[in-house]
Amino acid sequence: MNINRRAFTKAGLGVASLAALGGTQALAGPEHMIRKAIPSSGEMVPIIGLGTNRYGVDTSDAARAPLKAALERFHMMGGTVIDTAPGYRTSESVLGDLIAELGIRDDLFVATKTDRSGGPEDTQAQLQESQAKLKTEKIELMQVHNLRGWKEALPVMREWQQEGRIRYIGITTSRARQYEDFEKVMKQEDLDFIQVNYSLEQREAADRLLPLAADRGMGVIINRAFGGGRIFNAVGNQPLPAWAEDFGCYSWAQFLLKYAVGHPAATLSIPGMTKLHHVDDNFGAAHGRLPDAKERRLQEKFFDSL
Ligand SMILES: NC(=O)c1ccc[n+]([C@@H]2O[C@H](COP(=O)([O-])OP(=O)(O)OC[C@H]3O[C@@H](n4cnc5c(N)ncnc54)[C@H](OP(=O)(O)O)[C@@H]3O)[C@@H](O)[C@H]2O)c1
Prior knowledge:
Number of helices: 13
Number of strands: 10
Structural class: alpha/beta
CATH class: Alpha Beta
Strand order of the largest sheet: 3-4-5-6-7-8-9-10
Shape: globular
Mean pLDDT: 92
Low-confidence stretches: 1-19
Bound molecules: NADP nicotinamide-adenine-dinucleotide phosphate
Helix content: 40-55%
């Protein structure tokens, strides 16, 4: 994908959007957004992706139109990585339809999951269902959802990877009580990616999982950087500290996302977003620079003092 600056501004991004992105930084356009490398391949991906656990809607226009608008804006902003799962109700089919309608499949990096433990045939069947729903032969990233059935699923996923039908494989979690088991699987399996929850509010992943991922050369997708949205309620209208602008944060969402992806082991974050203005706001975190270790400690101290 190559959206140049003219196409970017022509895309109808008004003053409000540009302000949300951090003013002049946004004028640099998507080609200047921050990207990080996938350790197993060196492929560069934007540090902001799209979480779609709220895309499991019905077939009505009323339900789908706002999601289509958000997805279109995500693409326009230069976003590529989209995370879904068979467990998110109709999310895979909704995405398959919307991506086809927008004609943007070739620009995207689609990640989905397996969650069955009925053996190789069961996993095989689920992979085929995902291909059909997402309307795609090739899936960029296949992850075992919350480790469910990982022993049976990983060998099948590896076969598909060798055949070129899946590019990367990984495992996911979003619960600290699963970290011990998660760590064991990370130690014994060669994986391209892990996906884990990590936020200013829940930092436990940084104790062991994130350093281990760095040691093992695994990419890290951060989920729930907003605690599912709960953190916004907790911080309310509290102003950001003035120094947040030093590393390009002009909203709480940008402050939270830059903290999460600022961890050296993190590759990208996939905020859930169903609203256009949230896409605009969150892409602000993909511009400017990420906080360094000292600034991230300041962020923690500030957050803990609220
Ligand atoms: N175990 C797993 O594999 C696992 C578990 C959990 C999540 N995930 C993945 O991670 C993704 C992210 O997790 P999540 O969606 O639960 O939590 P999240 O990203 O922490 O929070 C999403 C919530 O934040 C709101 N939001 C987004 N941008 C905002 C902004 N700029 N300002 C204010 N509110 C904003 C969203 O609202 P709107 O929707 O209204 O835009 C939504 O209500 C999921 O969608 C899913 O793909 C994976």
